[in-house]
Amino acid sequence: MAGRTGISSPMRLAKYVAVFAAILGACASMSRAEDAVGESDTRLSDLERMVKNLTNEIKQIRTERQADQNTIKAIQEDAATLRKSNWMEVGEQLKKFRFGGYGEMHANFGESKSADQFDFHRLVMFIGYDFADWIHFNSEVEIEHAFVTDGASGELVVEQAYMDFELDKAINIRAGRVLTPLGIVNERHEPTRFFGVERPLFSKVIIPSTWSSDGVGIYGSPCEFLDYQLYVVGGLDGSGFNATSGIRGGRIKERPSLHDPAITGRVDLHPFARTELPLNQDLRIGLSGYFGGLDNGNKGANPGVNGDIAIFSADFDYTLCKFDFRGAIAYEHIKNASGMGAGTAEGIFGWYLQGGYHFMPDAWKKGKLADSDAVVFVRHDSVDTQLKMPGGVDRNPAGRQNEWTFGVNFYPTKNVVVKVDYQVRSNGNDDDLDDLINFGLGWEF
What we know:
Elements: H1 2-95, E1 97-110, E2 117-132, E3 135-144, E4 155-165, E5 172-179, H2 202-205, E6 212-223, E7 226-233, E8 262-269, E9 282-293, E10 308-320, E11 323-335, E12 347-358, E13 373-388, E14 400-413, E15 416-427, E16 436-444
Antiparallel strand pairs: 1-2, 1-16, 2-3, 3-4, 4-5, 5-6, 6-7, 7-8, 8-9, 9-10, 10-11, 11-12, 12-13, 13-14, 14-15, 15-16
């Protein structure tokens, strides 16, 4: 028994050792497994933390991108608003401008070859601007005879440039270069507003148009039947007067002297303004005057003329059915004319009378001619720049002139006119003046 016990003990010990070793190995394996699981958990936590951080960063990037997009959109909207605002401002400024103009071309043919010519007589541009609903600027710049140079007959001139301050219907202020308010044609000289290719002789010699004056004054319409103008302006240069063209050469077109200023004005009466009369009647009666000294020159270079002038004028327009009548008359008294030389008269007188008939049948006013019109007219001008002579000065018979004009004005539309007329001219000197055939094209816009 003792021998079996001794032999089996080592074997049993070996088994125990083997089992113990196996248990230790299993424990070690389990420990390594637990360590591996722990390490995996740690890595998983790190990954989860990284994913979370990346997710937050992506969200932040998206938020920042959206903010950038919103900023860009806001900038674009601001830019669009600014552009729109600028264009609206430009548009509002452009609305304050007013543009217009007129022009006329003439072809004149006479009995002598020297009378035949083509003349781009006038090209005028109008620009106005409204600073406010009661402050307005108006201007006209004219080119005459298509060519301007020293020694040529053409000219570039500012005909009008003035500011209106509209205070009330009855009284307003005007300052700048204005049209002298005498006669009819001087203020209404656009080619669509008078009959005939050339302006009336009266409007060339007695009240020379276009006649501008520089100064300040008032104007208004205190009631329906009354309009008025009254200005203090620079005067005429008496040294420019002569025997045949009267006061025409006394106009100063550049920088007129204010040494001997003048007062000028007019009143227009509309007696039928409140009455509706049969037969399409209308009447306007105008009274105008000019009173001032004659010692005025350009740029203050006064000629030393000791004299004064007084002009009295009346004019009218009358419509009856299809007939239009117009006339004007004026007398000019020049004090101390004898000292001015060049045959200047003490008294100058002139008038003209015109009648027109609108003959175009309504049946023709269709299609392109819906706004058309045609007028046949006759006008007689009579002027005498030598009516009353000062003592010691001989009369020049050539200063007494007469002119008959027969013609037609055709208006294909209201602001375009085609003209043709025939003129018979004479003077007190019995000079053989050419009869003229004139053609004209004029427009206004």
